[in-house]
TrEMBL record:
Obligatory cofactor(s): pyridoxal 5'-phosphate
GO molecular function, one term: branched-chain-amino-acid transaminase activity
Protein family according to the UniProt entry: Belongs to the class-IV pyridoxal-phosphate-dependent aminotransferase family.
Name of the protein: Branched-chain-amino-acid aminotransferase
Function in brief: Acts on leucine, isoleucine and valine.
PANTHER family associated with the record: AMINO-ACID AMINOTRANSFERASE, AMINODEOXYCHORISMATE LYASE
Pathway note: Amino-acid biosynthesis; L-valine biosynthesis; L-valine from pyruvate: step 4/4; Amino-acid biosynthesis; L-isoleucine biosynthesis; L-isoleucine from 2-oxobutanoate: step 4/4; Amino-acid biosynthesis; L-leucine biosynthesis; L-leucine from 3-methyl-2-oxobutanoate: step 4/4
Keyword tags: Amino-acid biosynthesis, Aminotransferase, Branched-chain amino acid biosynthesis, Pyridoxal phosphate, Transferase
Xref: Pfam families: Aminotran_4
Species of the source: Pseudomonas triticicola
Record lineage: Bacteria, Pseudomonadati, Pseudomonadota, Gammaproteobacteria, Pseudomonadales
EC number: 2.6.1.42
Catalytic activity: L-isoleucine + 2-oxoglutarate = (S)-3-methyl-2-oxopentanoate + L-glutamate; L-valine + 2-oxoglutarate = 3-methyl-2-oxobutanoate + L-glutamate; L-leucine + 2-oxoglutarate = 4-methyl-2-oxopentanoate + L-glutamate
């Protein structure tokens, strides 16, 4: 990898209420968030200087913290104002914003009652290379060995760091085998989502997507459902089994980073990215740039 490592870039990072030099935005190795994954975060995208769905992302950050039993010591308005200032200070017009909150160093044990909660926001330039035709080739997915756990195992609605360990394992396995990403099943063996994006299937003018009952109901997923209905697609949230995949013509992923990414295959099953992908990519592009 030739890209500059993330701790060595230029600019400023908002850390616990102050703008600090990028290289100085540090935490101690004895941080609860590091040892016990008591960390929640957001991924937001900036289009033309505007943060897309900032309100929804901010709400999810606070909900994630609440579900993980910690309180963010700043108001949503303060973090939103800090995010906007940060974009200006770093001159980011088209990019990505990463707010993160974690428990500090007061206690190193499963109990963390007295740990201070820290918050940082970083952002960087990351233009959306939304060349629809290049995207239409589609990516290849491999079904993961790891499964999304049942809702009784952890608060799945939280965008919490601990939930990403099986995602990283699954993504590595997919990449090691020449695929772009993994498709994760849930504990019942139903189709769930990719490692950091939701999944949709199309058959004619009907979209099918798994019910978000044990994984993140993505903000992009919700946006795409609205856009699709406005374009007269029928959208069905339902149980989808791996054996159902042959019923569909098209498949695509949705996510803040993935935007709408057509899929050409899942294991041996092939899809033909077509009119549904094209129409929804066009609608999504104009919505984020509106
Ligand atoms: N599922 C997972 C596991 C994710 O990490 C993401 C990205 N946040 C999504 C789905 C899509 O969510 P969103 O559309 O809100 O980015």
């Amino acid at each position: 990898m030739s890209a500059i490592p993330f701790d060595q870039r230029d600019g400023v990072i908002w850390l616990d209420g102050e703008f600090v030099e990028w290289s100085q935005a540090r935490l101690h190795v004895l941080s609860h968030g590091l040892h016990y994954a008591s960390t929640v975060y957001e991924g937001e995208r900036v289009y033309g200087g505007k943060i897309f769905k900032l309100h929804e992302h901010t709400q999810r950050l606070y909900r994630s913290a609440q579900l993980m039993d910690f309180a963010i010591p700043w108001s949503p308005q303060e973090l939103q104002a800090a995010s906007r200032q940060l974009l200006q200070r770093n001159a980011v017009l088209d990019g990505y914003l990463r707010p993160v909150a974690w428990r500090g160093s007061e206690m190193i044990s499963t109990s963390a009652r007295f740990n201070r909660v820290h918050v940082a926001i970083a952002c960087w330039q990351w233009p959306s290379y939304f060349d629809p035709e290049a995207r239409m080739a589609g990516i290849r997915l491999k079904t993961a060995d790891w499964r999304r756990p049942p809702p009784q195992s952890s608060p799945f609605e939280a965008k919490a760091s601990g939930h990403y360990q099986i995602a990283t394992l699954s993504k590595h396995d997919a990449e090691n085998n020449g695929y772009h990403d993994a498709l994760m099943l849930d504990w019942r063996g139903h189709v769930a989502e990719a490692t950091s994006a939701n999944v949709f299937f199309a058959k004619g003018r009907t979209l099918h997507t798994p019910l978000a009952d044990c994984f993140l109901n993505g903000i992009t997923r919700q946006t795409v459902i609205e856009l699709a209905r406005a374009l007269d697609y029928q959208v069905i949230e339902r149980t989808i089994l791996p054996t159902d995949l042959g019923d569909f013509d098209e498949c695509f992923l949705t996510g803040t980073a993935a935007e709408i990414t057509p899929v050409q295959s899942i294991d041996q099953q092939r899809f033909e990215p077509g009119i549904a992908c094209r129409e929804l990519i066009a609608a999504y592009t104009s919505t984020v740039n509106a």
